[in-house]
Design brief:
Blueprint: H1 5-40, H2 43-68, H3 77-80, H4 85-98, H5 103-118, E1 121-126, H6 133-140, E2 159-163, E3 166-170, H7 179-192, E4 195-200, H8 206-217, E5 222-226, H9 234-247, E6 254-256, E7 262-268, E8 274-280, H10 286-296, H11 300-348, H12 360-373, H13 380-393, H14 398-409, H15 419-446, H16 451-463, H17 467-483
Length: 484
């Protein structure tokens, strides 16, 4: 018989088949013998024996599931914060122990307690620049000297005015100068309020509709006030009111007002020449006051609850931002530290290569440190899988990595034969920096060590490594080699 792969495979299969038959026969004999003995044994012994058999059979399956199970995705911190003040305070304490700067979150809780103690109802006047916020306050409190500007708006900070049991917050217009920062400032103050007065001077624009939806999403009670209605007749006012009610699903009251301020009129002089002059515009704000009273009356408990929820949500968001900033900086330090170790290891290696297996210990420490930072449970099998996958990608990009390293070293003439070891060290630096960044992004964005995402991001970062990073790593390698 000619020995070829097919014949050999047939012989192996036949041998395994024969062994399987023998094993079945042996097991059958043993089972029959055990069954014979069990028929003569007490009933309790039969149950104990059956339980032991079941336990032994299930133990390997349990171990297999335990070592191969994927960790549960970490709940994003923005969703983990419950609207529970005690729980939020505990979270703040935990983040403080990690070294996170929690001051902004603590200030929100302090402000919440101060507003509770005051017993006042807070209203935020919200709207675009020159929508009439300052003019409304002037109409409510004529004795106050409120600056108004019909061109670009005057409020660039939050100003508060007390009107009876109401505290009015005049916030920056969301389309004023420094739009992004001021819009965020205005939205935060709106979250802290009991009620938001959303001032409009026409139908809702796309920007206003987006902001309205954002306020609605945080369960903020609102009154929509159409200002400068003296410019429209009754039919136009009704049409505008109906259009806004339809867009907002008639969930909040819509009133027509005139906050006053100044208006421009043309006046004919005795000599027949027409001139433009400013004069005070008559205010009409009673419909708004009545609507505010209607929203507040009988709903005090609910409004306080919504106010508290707004504060806690805002405090949670700021704590989340502080935690993310802390994690990002810590991850940067961890990646830089292990990149430094990798370069040192590469310079010390007798036969440096481009496979992560050579420096697997450092790679394992890097991945584990980043997972600990994000409090993500991970086992050694998952770490090994990530290192193996990313290490496999190096086989197709080794030449590119070394080319990038060589180009970086051109900035340091006169290295001679010493450049070879340093070039490999720079290559290792690029590898570990890309690995660390890929793992960091996976943990930050997905809350778990996602092997596929990490491998994809690693490859993109490695191929896209900039000459600037390679030069920085070359400087590090040179500095380390000169100390030896």
């Amino acid at each position: 018989m000619k020995w070829n792969p097919k014949n050999l495979a047939f012989m192996v299969a036949a041998l395994f088949g024969l062994l399987a038959v023998v094993l079945v026969l042996v097991l059958a004999e043993k089972l029959l013998a055990i069954w014979h003995y069990l028929q003569q044994a007490p009933l309790w012994l039969v149950f104990v024996y059956a339980a032991l058999l079941l336990l032994v059979a299930l133990l390997p399956l349990w171990l297999l599931l335990k070592f191969n199970r994927k960790p549960k995705p970490s709940t994003p911190q923005s969703q983990a914060f419950q609207l529970d003040e005690q729980g939020l305070q505990q979270q703040i304490n935990q983040e403080q122990q990690r070294g996170v700067d929690t001051l902004t979150a603590e200030l929100e809780l302090t402000e919440l307690q101060q507003r509770r103690d005051s017993g006042l109802f807070y209203l935020t006047l919200f709207g675009h620049a020159s929508s009439g916020k300052s003019s409304l306050i002037q109409a409510l409190m004529p004795e106050k000297n409120i600056d108004t500007d019909v061109i670009k708006g005057t409020t660039i900070d939050i100003h508060k005015y007390q009107y009876g049991q109401l505290m009015l917050a005049d916030v920056p217009g969301f389309d004023a100068v420094d739009q992004k920062a001021l819009t965020q400032q205005a939205m935060e103050e709106a979250q802290r309020a009991h009620v938001v007065v959303f001032l409009l001077d026409g139908d809702l624009s796309r920007t206003e509709m987006n902001l309205f939806q954002a306020l609605k999403a945080v369960n903020k009670p609102m009154v929509l006030a159409l200002n400068k209605m003296d410019l429209y007749d009754e039919a136009q006012q009704q049409a505008l009111t109906a259009a806004i009610s339809e867009k907002t699903t008639a969930q909040f009251p819509v009133v027509c007002i005139t906050t006053g301020g100044q208006e421009q009129i043309k006046v004919q002089q005795p000599d027949g020449i027409w001139t433009t002059q400013s004069r005070p515009r008559t205010s009409r704000i009673k419909p708004l006051i009545d609507a505010i009273k209607q929203v507040i009356s009988g709903n005090e408990t609910a409004l306080h609850r919504f106010r508290d929820a707004g504060f806690l949500l805002l405090a949670g968001q700021k704590l989340n931002q502080a935690s993310q900033a802390f994690n990002t900086q810590q991850a940067k330090d961890i990646i830089q530290n292990h990149t430094h170790k990798a370069i040192v290891g590469a310079l010390a290696s007798v036969a440096p290569g481009s496979d992560l297996v050579i420096q697997g210990t450092i790679g394992t420490q890097l991945v584990r440190a980043l997972c600990q930072l994000y409090q993500v449970e991970v086992n050694q099998l998952q770490i090994d899988a990530v290192l193996k996958a990313t290490g496999g990608k190096l086989k197709t990009s080794t030449s590119l990595i070394l080319a990038i390293s060589g180009n970086a070293l051109k900035s340091f003439p006169g290295l001679g034969t010493a450049a070879g070891g340093i070039m490999h060290a720079v290559a290792y630096g690029l590898i570990f920096n890309s690995l660390g960044q890929a793992v960091h992004l996976s943990l930050q964005q997905h809350g778990q060590l996602d092997g596929d995402k990490t491998q994809q991001t690693f490859e993109e970062l490695l191929i896209g490594s900039s000459q600037g990073l390679a030069k920085d790593l070359a400087k590090m390698a040179l500095k380390i080699s000169q100390k030896k």
